[in-house]
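We close this part of the discussion by returning to an individual protein. In the encoding step, the backbone of a single protein was reduced to a row of integers, each denoting a local shape. The sequence in question and its structure tokens are set out directly beneath this paragraph.
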Amino acid sequence: MRRIIIATRLYRDRILRLSWPSWRIAGEMA
């Protein structure tokens, strides 16, 4: 169970890091 929680946490952090530049670019263009 604990391994799943850690995996989902790392996966969420990775998505946030990958999506952050796109959010900043969208904010600058708007």
Remarks:
- The mean pLDDT is 83.
- The longest helix spans residues 2-29.
- The two ends are 42 Å apart (CA to CA).
- The helical segments are 2-29.
